[in-house]
Write a structure and sequence with these properties.
By secondary structure, this protein is an alpha/beta fold. The chain is built from 16 helices and 5 strands. The chain folds into 2 domains: about 190 residues, 3-Layer(aba) Sandwich (Rossmann fold); about 130 residues, no CATH class. The chain has a 5-stranded parallel sheet with strand order 2-3-4-1-5, with helices on both faces. It is globular, with a radius of gyration of 22 Å. The relative contact order is 0.11.
């Protein structure tokens, strides 16, 4: 593995290679949609900084084969830490992986995670002050950085401003505007672009080979692999339901029975519906038709809000798809 694995981000990769060859800043902020390679790029940067192959290092890259590169890829390298919701869930569970029902309890704990908490930041900042176990670079990656509680963000400030030598912080966000200005002022921003549909289609064939129509899912992905996977699940539900007047009810009935999963699937279906209506609105030849689609889009956004507020996912999806049918919006065209 190397920076070649970070697809369609040439400007970001070029900058990171300069960091490896020159002087890396104390803190980087990777900005851009989810599912475009930000975490992948952060891990490849950690590999390049710690790679044991001098020839690879001279190119600003990693070999992907040495002991350090393999350990970082596997998540076992002691000086590279990814603080995300999974890491936080493990901290809060306070159990060993060998304990009975660990995976089941971890999954439940993970479903509760919504914000990076101050205790998580205190845990990783304490580790950032420890001596490097391998003698190289220590790299601390904070995912969903925009979700940090204010207290957590403030606890991080002095550590990203004056880190120990050969220590790098990498914050990942898809909502830069939601972050504290004091954090933004201490980080070097690096923008990641949406991925083109052809790249997303290729990635879908690799990570989700069972996807019935990866090209269609890529069209509804808005440049994000995360959204492409969600769109693929939504399209599968939409396509499996029998077409006809009862189609909206059939789709609603096909949603998962567990409330949390049903809400997630409903959100994914509504995202697909919104994009279908938006495309037709952009292509609308007349003012009258455009106004109809504008009202439909407003309704669909309201339906998304309703699902978030615990309105029945099935009822909301059925109503939304009936509105789409009545307006003549077609998802599979």
């Amino acid at each position: 593995m190397s920076f070649q694995e970070v697809l369609d981000q040439p400007a970001a990769v070029a900058y990171l290679q300069k960091c490896v060859l020159g002087r890396a800043p104390q803190a980087l902020l990777f900005c851009g949609p989810s599912g475009v390679g930000k975490k992948k790029a952060a891990l490849e940067l950690a590999k390049a900084l710690n790679c044991l192959d001098p020839q690879a290092r001279q190119t600003g890259d990693s070999c992907g084969l040495c002991a350090h590169c393999r350990a970082i890829e596997q998540g076992t390298y002691p000086d590279v830490l990814v603080a995300d919701f999974l890491y936080q869930a493990r901290l809060e569970l306070k159990k060993e992986p060998s304990d009975k029902n660990y995976e089941e309890e971890l999954e439940k704990e993970l479903a509760k995670q919504q914000r990076i908490k101050v205790d998580t930041i205190r845990d990783i900042t304490a580790k950032s002050q420890q001596k490097s176990a391998a003698g190289g670079w220590k790299v601390f990656i904070v995912d969903e950085a925009q979700s940090m509680q204010a207290e957590a963000a403030n606890a991080l400030l002095k550590f990203i401003e004056e880190p120990p030598q050969k220590t790098l912080w990498v914050l990942l966000t898809d909502k830069k505007a939601a972050m504290l200005k004091t954090i933004l002022s201490r980080c070097q921003p690096l923008q990641f672009a949406p991925l083109p549909p052809a790249t997303l289609e290729t990635l879908l064939r690799q990570v989700a080979p069972q996807t019935p129509d990866p090209a269609l899912a890529a069209r509804y992905a808005q440049g994000s692999l995360t959204r492409a996977l969600r769109a693929a699940d939504a399209l599968e539900i939409l396509q499996a339901a029998p077409q006809g007047p009862a189609w909206p009810a059939a789709v609603a009935a096909a949603l998962p029975r567990v409330t949390t999963a049903a809400r997630q699937s409903a959100q994914a279906v509504l995202d697909v519906a919104i994009l279908a209506a938006y495309r037709q609105w952009m292509q609308s030849p007349g003012a009258s038709r455009g106004e109809v689609l504008r009202r439909i889009l407003k309704k669909l956004e309201d339906y998304k809000t309703a699902v978030q507020r615990n309105v029945s996912p099935a009822l909301t999806v059925e109503t939304a798809l009936m509105s789409l049918d009545n307006a003549g919006v077609r998802i599979f065209e």
